[in-house]
């Protein structure tokens, strides 16, 4: 099989409602939708969803980078994943969202060629994934109402955005816990919003509300600060922005800086690199969560769900981006209706088709 053409279409669509995190507000999904055509007539679908607040990428830049990749990838076998990534790395440093678009499409082709769903190719541990629901930053009473709605929709785990200050964050979690009761798991995500000592004080105070874990409490580059927090609280700490790739994962593990690692395809460059991160963590006895960017469509979320289902060490999932969309990018895969249990199709590849 050889790549004959790579089509890319930039798409921006307004979300059902904006999502605010400590870094800023996100109003639109952003996706460079890719179709890789082959000489066997099989088409693979992927997407690059740049999250400018996290990766610093833009939709225009991601689209242009994919077009640069095409010039070097024509005639290459899309099943040669290692070679594909080597070529992309020679064309562009970083650019994880652009690389993810190609990577996802290649794994989709891999599944279609093998006539197997991608999760089977990646390990086949399970065929479904349980996800949480994210509650964005807002006034405490508004966040509490949104949390109550999510629980009524069947979610028993919520990820609550925090990181704007002790009093406001405590008020949010207190209000949410009061309306949802004690049976719902709460994960907190500060998106780098606290200083290390502030994080320790806030997390220790919030422990009374039954917190499963806290994600990225301090600045992404402050690994010492991250380790300080991990070592001074009883609540488990998870990295997000501090871990883009397998090299980051290795440093976090070596420094014992976190208890869990959040993998996102758009941060690391796709499934190929995500598997490396998970293997490093698994060898060290550190479980992973699979996450997604708010900007993603059903293409990226579906690929992440296949990876999560396939691997035993990815024990948690935050794959709710499609629930904020008004329409899917390509029919198939994870849908728009909020559901805590994502069941994967047995169709070949990612189950996406026009």
From TrEMBL:
<feature type="binding site">
    <location>
        <position position="189"/>
    </location>
    <ligand>
        <name>Mg(2+)</name>
    </ligand>
</feature>
<dbReference type="Pfam" id="PF13378">
    <property type="entry name" value="MR_MLE_C"/>
</dbReference>
<feature type="active site" description="Proton acceptor; specific for (R)-substrate epimerization">
    <location>
        <position position="161"/>
    </location>
</feature>
<dbReference type="InterPro" id="IPR036849">
    <property type="entry name" value="Enolase-like_C_sf"/>
</dbReference>
<feature type="binding site">
    <location>
        <position position="240"/>
    </location>
    <ligand>
        <name>Mg(2+)</name>
    </ligand>
</feature>
<keyword id="KW-0413">Isomerase</keyword>
<dbReference type="InterPro" id="IPR029065">
    <property type="entry name" value="Enolase_C-like"/>
</dbReference>
<dbReference type="GO" id="GO:0016855">
    <property type="term" value="F:racemase and epimerase activity, acting on amino acids and derivatives"/>
</dbReference>
<dbReference type="GO" id="GO:0009063">
    <property type="term" value="P:amino acid catabolic process"/>
</dbReference>
<dbReference type="InterPro" id="IPR029017">
    <property type="entry name" value="Enolase-like_N"/>
</dbReference>
<protein>
    <recommendedName>
        <fullName>Dipeptide epimerase</fullName>
        <ecNumber>5.1.1.-</ecNumber>
    </recommendedName>
</protein>
<dbReference type="GO" id="GO:0000287">
    <property type="term" value="F:magnesium ion binding"/>
</dbReference>
<dbReference type="InterPro" id="IPR034603">
    <property type="entry name" value="Dipeptide_epimerase"/>
</dbReference>
<keyword id="KW-0479">Metal-binding</keyword>
<dbReference type="InterPro" id="IPR018110">
    <property type="entry name" value="Mandel_Rmase/mucon_lact_enz_CS"/>
</dbReference>
<keyword id="KW-0460">Magnesium</keyword>
<feature type="domain" description="Mandelate racemase/muconate lactonizing enzyme C-terminal">
    <location>
        <begin position="140"/>
        <end position="236"/>
    </location>
</feature>
<comment type="similarity">
    <text>Belongs to the mandelate racemase/muconate lactonizing enzyme family.</text>
</comment>
<dbReference type="GO" id="GO:0006518">
    <property type="term" value="P:peptide metabolic process"/>
</dbReference>
<dbReference type="InterPro" id="IPR013342">
    <property type="entry name" value="Mandelate_racemase_C"/>
</dbReference>
<dbReference type="Pfam" id="PF02746">
    <property type="entry name" value="MR_MLE_N"/>
</dbReference>
<feature type="active site" description="Proton acceptor; specific for (S)-substrate epimerization">
    <location>
        <position position="264"/>
    </location>
</feature>
<feature type="binding site">
    <location>
        <position position="215"/>
    </location>
    <ligand>
        <name>Mg(2+)</name>
    </ligand>
</feature>
<dbReference type="InterPro" id="IPR013341">
    <property type="entry name" value="Mandelate_racemase_N_dom"/>
</dbReference>
